[in-house]
Design a protein that fits this description.
Blueprint: H1 11-29, H2 36-58, H3 62-88, H4 94-120
């Protein structure tokens, strides 16, 4: 696996960004503009996915990165739960729900694969690179 230099290169972060764009469009054009608490929650959980991937990567160590990836993965679950709330209140269609839910599941799977890779990696992270044990 090639060494990733920036969090923007991480596929799960890229996909989370796309999901945030979809959520943003849905909020801006959706019929739940007045449900401010729900909007805040869904934007928060969607944003948390990409933000935690970025923050964990920038910490420079695999152990911390893995911890933040688990938080990002949990935010995928939180977002999926909120999507059910949107569907149940008829704020989104079944098709919109399926698209967003599938996208969130894909991101969760990508994050899990990255976690598994990092957990099995001999490298401990960039902040440990100059120390005796890579």
């Amino acid at each position: 696996m090639a060494t990733i230099q920036t969090f923007e290169e991480i596929v799960s972060w890229q996909e989370a960004r796309l999901l945030n764009q979809k959520i943003g469009t849905l909020i801006d054009t959706g019929n739940f503009k007045s449900s401010f608490k729900l909007i805040n929650q869904i934007e928060g959980s969607a944003g948390s996915i990409m933000d935690n991937i970025a923050e964990g990567f920038e910490r420079g160590g695999n152990k911390e990165f893995i911890q933040f990836l688990y938080i990002a993965k949990a935010s995928c679950g939180e977002l999926r739960s909120q999507l059910y709330r949107l569907l149940d209140r008829k704020y989104i269609t079944q098709i919109e729900f399926e698209d967003l839910n599938t996208h969130a599941k894909k991101i969760s799977s990508l994050i899990q694969k990255l976690i598994s890779y990092l957990e099995s990696s001999e490298t401990k992270g960039i902040k440990y690179k100059n120390r005796s044990n890579n």
